[in-house]
Amino acid sequence: MSLSGRGIGVSVGEQWLIExxxxxxxxxxxxxxxxxxxxxxxxxxxxxxxxxxxxxxxVTLNDVxxxxxxxxxxxxxxxxxxxxxxxxxDFTVRDIVEMGWRRRGRRDQALHxxxxxxxxADCDIGALAxxxxxxxxxxxxxxxxxxxxxxxxxxxxxxxxxxxxLLDEPTSNLDIANGISVLERLREKSRQGLxxxxxxxDLNLGARYADRVLLLQDGKAAACGRxxxxxxxxxxxxxxxxxxxxxxxxxxxRLVVLT
Length: 259
Hints:
The chain is α/β, with parallel strands linked by helices and about 260 residues long. The protein is about 35% helix and about 25% strand. α4 packs antiparallel against α5.
C-alpha cells in the first residue's frame, strides 16, 4: 500500500511545472523532497494530495485513482499541512488543533481528547493551548498547524488503515531546536506506520532525517533514493547552481552539507 504517482505532469499553457515524475510514499517512511525555488515541490505535493489534478500521469492511493476517492474519504486518509494560515476570527490554539478531528459522525469524546492532547504534547504547544492563534509568532502557528494535521491522521491502536501526512516546509519558520524537534517527531510517527512526505529547504535536515530523498530540478526528478546516494556534492552543486560540499562527519555519524 502506498501513495503513488506515475508520470505525473502539470502544465500552465505550454510550460510544464512538473513533468514525468514517479513517486511512492510508503507507510512507515519519511520521504523528503528537496530542490531549489521553482523546482516544482509544492506543485507535486498538491497533486499527491488530490488538491490539484495532474495534466499527465496518475496518482493512486492504495491502488485507487485519487480522483475517484471522495473528499471525505480522502480527508480520512491524508492530511496536508502548509504554511501557517492567517485567520480572521479569534480561534484559540486548542480550537485549531481540534479542527483536525475527522470522526465527527462517530465522535468518541475519550478518543477525541486523547488525539488532541497527544498532538499538543507532540508539538510542545501545551503552554499555548488557550492562547488566541493570531497572537502567536509564525513559528508557533506552524507548530499548531502541525498538531492539527497530526490529529487528522491520528488513529487508535485497533485502527490499522494506512495514513499519510504531507507537509510543505514544516520547519521554515522554526528555530534550530524546534526544527530538529519537529523532524524527530515526524520520524517517530513514520516509525509507527505513518507515511510522511516533507518538503524541506534545509539540506542538512533532509540528510539527517530522511529515509529517502526526492531531488527535483526544473520540474523533473534529478534523483531519488537514500540520502547518501542522492545528496552528492556534484549533484547538489549542479541542481542548486552553487558549489556544495558534502562529507560524512565521523563524530556525528551522518552526512553534513556545507555551502
